[in-house]
Amino acid sequence: MFTKRCVAFLFFFSIFLTPTVSSVLASHSTKLPSPSINELPPPPQLPDIQIVKGIVKKGDTASSLLNNYLPLKTIYAMDRQSADSFSLRRINKGHPYKIILQEGALIGFEYEINQENKLVIQRKNNGFSINQMPIDYDVTLEVVTSTITYSLFDAVKKSGERSELAWKLSDIFAWDIDFIRDIQPGDRFKVLVEKRYQEGKLAGYGKIQAAVFINKGKRFDAFLHKNSNGVSGYYDKKGNSLQKAFLKAPLAFSRISSKFSTKRMHPILNRSRAHPGVDYAAPMGTPIKTVGDGIITKIGYNKTMGNHVIVRHCNGYITRYYHMSKFAKGMKKNKRVLQGDIIGHVGMTGLATGPHLCFGIKHNGKLLDPLSYNSPSATPVNPHEMEQFLTKAQKLSQTMLTAQKQGPSNKESA
Ligand SMILES: [Zn+2]
Known about the structure:
alpha+beta, Glucose Permease (Domain IIA), 3 domains, 10-stranded antiparallel sheet, 5-stranded antiparallel sheet, 7 helices, globular, binds zinc ion
């Protein structure tokens, strides 16, 4: 149930070759039992299929990749036609591609747009068909475990995996664990993750289905759940969302230059005044994100707050963002914003001595310390889906306990 096998090359040939040819190729495959020599039909004419594989290099364009095989006029026509699905002009360095030739003539071109989808161009009659298709992988569900001696990245590497997995794992627990400051030697994790292989080689990771992280002796569990609206998220054993209603901070790469206090000396007014928020010193222009879903109730300028935005959230929460250099495009009063949306950029408008964001949060009219309040959790699993969730979570836990770390039989050791 957890293992989906797709044989990439067979899929590929089924697209590009006639049925006759594909059965011929299958009989040459070592995976199928070969008939004895006497039973073999007379050898058919094998078309000369050649696949040129490569990675797009800096400066490469569709024309430079294809002009050995197609007249420029045809490439331009293809380019115009591709605009509807994925423009050939968006071909980017670092992405893999394939040129498929039959007796020297181009019959297909594939380009991996991202880890999920590829652009597939196939010769059809006098023209080409151009489509986006999911990339075929051999997908296996595997358990990865490791213990931290230095950092999460180091521990993931030690288990033979790629750093991409560390990112995925830290994203899941980011609300509970600060992976820079909270991690200590002896922390450990176990992950049940989809691993994607292409031609036996690890090509990347799909979704983490379940994970356990032990941080400073405290255990955190995560189970993937897709709700009936098709939105996926991670939940603990009881179905509580691991996500919080509010981000820890409205901007990354900043330094706290002034903490929340009920009394302090104002640097400009030079008299004692409460500081009902947190100042994050950050370079001019640093993007500022709204910490939670909500609606912009105020956006404008005044002499004290400079360019400022106020966002109203559910359940009586309000957040405010002062001294912006500019607002993000499209921000206006009554606009609905989602957690993490960029609403503006760090500046020093209004009463400010240097570029910083003054951030504050209120709950039912009461000021909170943004650095120490407990953010409410995001919505838990819907009660209607709870039973189904609990059953799945239990199954995933069981799989994690019993599964061995393993890949496809033809996988090269990582
Ligand atoms: Zn401030």
